[in-house]
Amino acid sequence: MTNIYENTPISDEMANRLRAMPKFELHVHLEGATDAATVWELARRNKVALPAKTLDEWRSMYAFRDFDHFLRIYGEAIKCMQTADDFAFMLERFLVEQARQNVRYCEVFLSASFMVKGFPQDEVIAALAEGIKQGKEKYDIQMKFIPDIARHEPETSQPVLDFILKGYEKGIFIGLGLGGIEVGFPPNLFIDVYDEARSQGLRLLAHAGETVGAESVWGAIKDLNVERIGHGVRSVEDPKLLKYLAETQTPLEVCPHSNYRLGITPLDEPHQMRKLVNAGVFCTVNSDDPPMFSTDLTSEYLLLAKQGFSWDELWQLNLNAIEASFLSDKEKEIYRAEWGEFHK
Q1: Which of 25, 182, 210, 253 is catalytic?
Q2: Conformational region of residue 134, where left means phi above 0, alpha means psi within -120 to 50, and beta covers everything else
Q3: CB–CB of 274/314 below 8 Å?
Q4: Does residue 4 sit within a domain?
């Protein structure tokens, strides 16, 4: 197989510009952005037994065979996250990493189906609120959270929504997401909770078109009326869907390394981003679960550059993230001005 990196060489100038440019990130999971060493530390702190005897063995388990393997390890990791202090610790490390890459704003997913099971919800919301404050004051990073329902645990839908509404009242949470296992858990299972979330003023989005094809994306659009699609790369399998996405400019939160690591995109093929962009689909670039996939947001841009994307195309993808975010128009204008100064 051809290695995904053995494509168009890029100049040092291009690489340095991509590293330095200010960035937005719209699809990153807090739990999945917590590296193996931190999870190991939390496991020791909370006396949780991981399926590994050493840190090195635990790290080796991040070489995922498929999506099911990824979910199993992800599930083991989130069991180690049990207190408000844990989340404060995770957030601090997350912010350090985002600041290193000049990420100025991020909308961060939380695994809420786990958090509603006997979790100290009010304490965690307080810790997240403090994290938002510290992110702005210490790192000049603005941050909002989007708790999501695990599809394969539909019974948690209402408790997740109740949890979100608690944080929404405090300005911490901005929307409802849907993640987890696509196969066997179509979007129409969640119509009622999405309708209620919409009536409460929440922004709506869903993972779709990752392990299930275009029908999953259609379901998220038609049944749940989402505003953005997480991943959505398998939309390329349906010309009618591509046309619809291009005409409506429905944003996709695309995560290239994640797709390669989980076998969604074959290692010997270019990423679907090229077909999506060429079809006029509104795409953004994201890292998903960065340490789990040995990546970060800058690396996602570098990968696309090595697959032939020009600076102008990559810059447009970066601008797209501002427009696709759930910020107000006034807030977006501030970032547009900052991006414009960088691009002079």
Answers
A1: 210
A2: alpha
A3: no
A4: no
Tokens of 140: 């000049």
Find the length of the chain: 344
User: Which domain covers residue 307, as residue numbers?
Assistant: 12-342
Q: Which helix (H) or strand (E) holds 138?
A: helix 121-139
Digit-coded pLDDT (tens) for 210-269: 999 999 999 999 999 999 999 999 999 999 999 999 999 999 999 999 999 999 999 989
Residue 318 lies in a domain: yes
Is residue 210 flagged as an active site residue?
yes
pTM for the predicted model, two decimal places: 0.96
Query: Residue 225 falls within a domain, yes or no?
Result: yes
What is d(CA 64, CA 259) in angstroms, rounded to the nearest whole number? 11
Residue 224: name the closest of 184, 182, 192 by CA. Answer: 192
Could you tell me the two tokens for 127? 């810790």
d(CA 95, CA 92): 5
Alpha helices in 151-296 (DSSP H): 157-169, 191-199, 214-222, 239-248, 256-261, 273-278
Tokens of 130: 């403090």
Q: Is residue 7 part of a domain?
A: no
Domain count, the chain: 1
Dig out the tokens for 269 from the structure: 């093929």
3-state secondary structure of 256: helix
- The CATH number assigned to the domain holding 243 equals 3.20.20.140
